Amino acid sequence: MQLLKTGAFLRAARSARLSIPSRRAPLATSYTPSRWSSSQVAAAAHEQNPFPEQSVNASREVDPAKTAELKDDGVQKSDSTNTDSHKQQTTIGGTPYILDQTTNVTSSILGLVGRNLYDQADHPICITRKLIESCFPHPEYNNFTMSDPVVTVKDNFDVLGFPADHPGRSRTDTYYVNSTHLLRTHTSAHQHAAFQTLATEKHTSGYTICADVYRRDSIDRSHFPVFHQMEGARVWDLTPNAESRYLAQTMRTSKIARQLDALPKTSIEVEDNATSFSRNTNPMQSEHDPVEVQLVVSHLKRSLEYLMEQIHKAAQESLDPSARQASGPLKVRWVEAYFPFTSPSFELEVLWNGEWLELLGCGVVQQPILNNAGLKYSIGWAWGVGIERFAMLLFGIPDIRLFWSDDPRFLRQFSRGKITKFEPFSKFPACYKDIAFWINPSPGVASPIGAEAPSTSGVAAAAGGNATKASPSETQPAAFHENDIMEVVRDIAGSLAEDVKLVDEFVHPTSGRKSLCYRINYRSLERTLTNEEVNELHNQVERRMASQFGVELR
Ligand code: DAH
């Protein structure tokens, strides 16, 4: 999992119904003529206060004049009766949204919405989710899943204190439905609502949330534009009816200490490189009591160490005794981290085949987030993990695309409650093709709406953050971002693309133009692809690159 850091509902899984209020407008907001106008407003507000005190009810009035006729086939091409781009519309999970010039979500991505793999009891994603939930059980924790992936920009970034220039906000990294709504990039987008629920449901003190999350990213065996995350949090309230605030605080502190003591002991080997909270790199929050922060952090770390031990045990049980011995004891370590929404923050890494792997991020929740959700007198911790990474290690699944396979040879290998090692079915041949092109020095066109037609709207391919990097080594902004080709390949080849890599780049000595060459590896996990079909896919990729980004094929 790549964590959203920089120098850095609903369905309850148990039968309980969650009372998280719906905070989304049924129909998206009005068209904004300037591409970034609404986020500029948000950015300006953010600069004044990274944690605006707010009612997060983002709903806005629907202007019927701005509503296009509803069609039902994913991202709308132009409305035949009205060609204005602002009349374009898409329906996601039954809710219509007006598209605008911020839109970059594609029909192929929307086609993956609603699979709810975390809900299919015999699927490795669901088996992993249940295993994690078993370490954070009811009634102390509510276990939620969240099927609708559309959230507001506010919930995904603003309320969590993401700076206005955080690269995660850029259109090269995130799928925007329109300027106010996006496909959540992490489960933390539901923190605010889940904390609000905690504020009213006094019988629980924490929650887990599992959901599908979406990110524009590179194409390789461990990255897919949709993956799953799980998020957990736990809070402690000030004891009501205490005679004084001081007494209430003391009682809360001793409660945390008692609960810390009651946590199950683990026998894993832990190296802790994040024990002191440096004022410069990983500060505690000024309003917190240092003793209490130490206790909350210990409770957080111990809870997650317990999780790691349980997962390790489950994985061991799937091995035969000799393999168990060979795999040795579990070793984990804590390192300092940075997340906009926690401080201090940590990452947990696990030693896997001789390498330290980053597995999860966590920390003490930024107090303004709790305050904004009605938990003014609480202190708490939160964590987030990527489920695929866990599941790939646990089940020995070598390619992330397999999670999305309908092939019974994959699906029938797994059953609820059991960790079993994946047996590869035969590997089908790969076929690679190169695409080489001169990149266009002027901005290309990013909106996938009507992508085949060369557009003159001049919308930049990328916006914000590191968005305009032409390649990982490029420092000068250019009109092309590597994630753009990834998106085109994904849209055309879907899961038939195994990986896409930059294999050559050079700058013409006299013209100064830059040429890039990408190698696309096409391989089906389920059958042998014919030459003709690969050629056809590749031709489409070439045509789309030329028409959508104005690159000149070589
Ligand atoms: N939302 C983070 C990500 O996607 C993961 C995370 C880190 C969640 C720390 C948390 C947290 O709740 O406390 O990268």
Automatic annotation (TrEMBL):
Composition skew (Low complexity), residue ranges: 457-471
Primary localisation category: mitochondrion
GO molecular function: ATP binding; phenylalanine-tRNA ligase activity; tRNA binding
GO cellular component, one term: mitochondrial matrix
Span list, region Disordered: 39-95, 457-476
Record-linked Gene3D superfamilies: Bira Bifunctional Protein, Domain 2, Ferrodoxin-fold anticodon-binding domain
Biological process, per Gene Ontology: phenylalanyl-tRNA aminoacylation
Biased composition (Basic and acidic residues): 60-76
Domain Aminoacyl-transfer RNA synthetases class-II family profile: 211-424
Stretches with biased composition (Polar residues): 77-93
Family matches, as NCBIfam families: pheS_mito
Function: Is responsible for the charging of tRNA(Phe) with phenylalanine in mitochondrial translation.
Protein name listed in UniProt: Phenylalanine--tRNA ligase, mitochondrial
Organism phylogeny: Eukaryota, Fungi, Dikarya, Ascomycota, Pezizomycotina
